Amino acid sequence: MKKVLAGGLLVFVLLLAVVAAGCIGGGGQTGTQTPATVTETKVKTETKVETQVQEKVFVRFAGWSAGETEMKNYEKMIKAFEEQNPNIGIKYEVITQMFHENILASYGAGVAPDVFYVDSAWAPIFIDKGALYPISDLADQSFIDQFYPFLLEPFMKDGKLYGLPKDWSMLALFYNKKLFEQAGLTRPPETWEELEEYAKIIADKTGKPGLAIYLGGFNRYVPVAVSNGAPKPWFEKPEDASWFDNPAVKETLTWYIDLYRKGKTERENQGLTPYVVQPSDVGAGWLGDAFGQQEVAMVISGNWMIPFLADQFPDFKYGEDWDIAPVPAGKEGRVTMVYTVILGINAKTEHPQEAWKFVEFLLGPEGQKELVVKGGQTLPSIKGFENDPDMWPQHKKTLSFKYDQMIVFLWGPKSGPLEGKFSDAMAAAMRGEMSVDEAIEVMKQVVQEELSS
Asked: What InterPro entries does its record include (predicted)?
């Protein structure tokens, strides 16, 4: 207690001294100044600043490629994203073969990329395996509402959305105007029968094959079947194999397979220029190469071919040398295929927020404006760009085509594996290794085996 009182008394004395000094020296008063001693205590404050360096997070992004153009476009966007987000690095990986099978295998092994393409045909399998992070758990509904609803349907299950489409495309007919002119043709073919007739005329008059197709390619055949009265294919149970028994299916599948058997094999046996070929028959890797090299007059392909032609064949001018027309019509109308792919997020990613930030950057209005609209990669998957002045005229033209049906690439819960096995059977028949009837039986068996478990 004494120590406390002594301390208080000392403070009181010091205060009196300070007050006294203030009174003597202030207020303009005169008189003799009495010296006073003031004790000043200085407190030194040290501020310690800790700088925390945020560790850089790397997000692996995997896709396939529609050619060098697409890869360059993504590399440009990745660079822009990393400049805006210096704490996130993107490792871009291109898988050239068996993409979905490789992704599923890497997912099972725990080494799958953080972000990867998923085609609509494979979406049900990825969703059922729990391989996709629900995008509806990451994105605001207002962001999701920007997208065309019909493009979201393949990626939904039990009220959850498992991905947002990066863009979309539709099949259209690409034709070489110069070869048409040489063959005396003044307009694109209107029907499937006319397509084959034109192909023959072009081969006979120009010495160039009139049409290139893929061997197999069940999804490319579907518009032929549906436009001629077949129902849209859907395979959910073994009994759905009966789709192949439909008369319109048998008739159109025979015609499609015979395109190559008659147009290539029989024509060459007769010593004539084939009027139908596959890309490798003319030294090309895919339809875009075959058409861009002007080795064939017509191909049916998607919007992804447009930027490829502009980039790889700049002297082959749209509107001057080549043009686009709707897919030919059948007896029951005109039908095209719609293709879309999401940027799916790995359900096991260690960096869901960073992965979503990258996906949001690519798929939002600004990203799609640069990558899809200005870059001309394909068609934007969000609404509002239909009349954008930066939309490439080639893409605008495809959007102007009128179709009775636009079928999104999805045949049921196992569309991906079914598509591959259907195409293998069709390709074998096209090469003459089995008859059309045998190919149909194989495809029916595939449905029964895939969906029996």
From this structure: Bact_solute-bd_prot1, SBP
Query: Is there a single domain that holds both residue 190 and residue 96?
Result: no
Question: At a CB cut-off of 8 Å and minimum separation 6, what does 353 contact?
Answer: 138
447: CB partners within 8 A, 6+ apart: 235, 238, 240, 241, 243, 418
**Burial profile 199-229: b = 16 or more Cβ within 10 angstroms, e = fewer:** bbbbbeebebbbbbbbbbbbbbbbbbbbbbb
Q: How many Cβ atoms are within 10 Å of 193's Cβ, its own excluded?
A: 13
* Contact yes or no for 295/209 (Cβ under 8 A): yes
Establish if 36 belongs to a structural domain. Answer: no
Same domain? For 363 and 230 the reply is no
Contact 374, 366 (CB under 8 A): no
Range of 161's domain? Answer: 57-168+340-390
pLDDT digits (tens, 9 = 90+) for 46-84: 445 444 556 899 999 999 876 677 788 889 999 999 999
In this structure, what token pair is assigned to residue 96?
């050239």
In whole angstroms, what is the distance from residue 371 CA to residue 360 CA? 13
Residues 174 and 164 in one domain: no
Which pLDDT belongs to residue 73? 85
Pair 91, 76 in one domain: yes
Query: How far is the C-alpha of 206 from the C-alpha of 264, rounded, in Å?
Result: 16
- Are 307 and 359 in the same domain? no
Answer yes or no: do 315 and 174 share one domain.
yes
Q: What are the residue ranges in the chain where pLDDT is below 50?
A: 1-47, 49-51
CATH number of 378's domain: 3.40.190.10
Count of the separate structural domains present in the chain: 2
pLDDT the model gives residue 430: 98
Question: pTM for this one?
Answer: 0.84
Taking the CA of residue 88 as centre, how many other CA atoms within 13 Å lie in the half-sphere pointing to its CB?
24
Task: Write down the pLDDT at residue 302.
Answer: 97
**Shared domain check, 90 and 192:** no
Same structural domain, 426 and 298: yes
CA–CA gap between residue 141 and residue 354 (Å, rounded): 19
Q: What is the pLDDT of residue 26?
A: 38
What residues form DSSP beta bridges with 94?
Answer: 63
- Residue 405 in any domain: the answer is no
Question: Is 29 inside any structural domain?
Answer: no
pLDDT number for residue 68:
74
Query: How many CB atoms are closer than 10 A to CB 120?
Result: 23
Residue 423: its pLDDT value, please? Answer: 97
